[in-house]
Design brief:
The chain has a single domain (10-278), classed as Neuraminidase. It is built from no helices and 23 strands. The strands form five sheets. Strands 1, 2, 4, 21, 22 and 23 form a six-stranded mixed β-sheet that branches. By secondary structure, it is an all-beta fold.
Length: 280
């Protein structure tokens, strides 16, 4: 699990590599950010899926991803005096999550959203639920989902859901409507851009981070073995022509999240390997 720490942002990325030595921060970002290896999460089934924070001291991580027996694991995190994660503690099962992939994030009402591969669904969990409360079969245009995220404040189309297709590389928005049960129906699912690359994670870079001068998203791309930076269109979707490498040399890059303590961006991959990227 690699963590990249910006002034108000850090990226945590898990890699499928046997070691993290091949991963590097790309030029020109290497002048402001560096990688630190954290190691793996002991006790979590191999093949990681999406990840997010339950609270400041607890990480949620997809395990045994892309299988019918996949789960979301609850992991205690240990921090240093600056609030950065240095290691991982106790592990317990949070919920079942059949076929979970790279998308795992909290949305409106504290509902937890997760994507699945290769059955192309979006799962929703009410607070405290240990199984999905709602599973939406998504249309062919998203086949098959790699990730899901909500456009962060300060960006175009803030608050909208953004669904990334692993197979097709497209980014789609949707209209969300409360269904009366605490979860949401989706309609008008429409592709707004296409970056390719097998997207598995998405986070929005906060203003004021070095070398990011315009609204930007970081995308964990499984197929390219990289985390890439993209400027945004009016829908808050990544624009393919603007893409540049941020981190390269990853294998199985998946997931993305922001640390509530350090405002770090986190991503992960399909095998247990971890680290942190600090601002120089």
């Amino acid at each position: 699990m690699t963590s990249i720490v910006f002034r108000s942002l850090a990226v945590l990325s898990l890699s499928a590599m046997s070691g993290f030595g091949a991963a590097v921060v790309a030029n020109p970002f290497d002048s402001a950010y560096t990688l630190v290896d954290l190691g793996s999460v002991s006790g979590v089934d191999p093949s990681y899926g999406g990840l997010t924070f339950l609270n400041a001291s607890t990480l949620l991580l997809g395990a045994n991803a892309n299988s019918v027996s996949a789960t979301i694991q609850e992991i205690a995190v240990n921090r240093d005096g600056n609030g950065h994660i240095t290691s991982f503690g106790s592990v317990s099962q949070y919920a079942t999550a059949p076929y979970i992939d790279g998308g795992l994030t909290f949305g409106p009402g504290g509902v937890l959203f997760a994507t699945s591969y290769s059955n192309n669904t979006l799962m929703q969990y009410l607070p405290g639920s240990t199984t999905p409360d709602k599973i939406i079969n998504l249309p062919a245009g998203t086949n098959s989902t790699g990730t899901v995220q909500f456009v962060a404040p300060g960006n175009p189309n803030a608050g909208s859901i953004m669904i990334g297709s692993f197979n097709l590389g497209g980014w789609s928005t949707a209209t969300m409507t409360p269904d009366g049960n605490g979860t949401f129906d989706l309609s008008d699912i429409t592709e707004r851009s296409n970056t390719g690359g097998g997207p598995e994670g998405l986070i929005y870079v906060g203003a004021g981070n070095p070398l990011f001068s315009s609204p930007t998203a970081l995308v964990s791309e499984y197929n390219t073995g990289a985390i890439r930076a993209y400027e945004l269109n009016s829908f808050g979707a990544p624009v393919a022509e603007t893409g540049v490498d941020f981190v390269t040399g990853l294998t199985g890059a998946e997931g993305a999240m922001i640390d509530p303590v350090t405002a770090c961006v986190h991503a992960e991959g399909s095998r247990p390997e971890s680290g942190r990227i600090n601002q120089n």
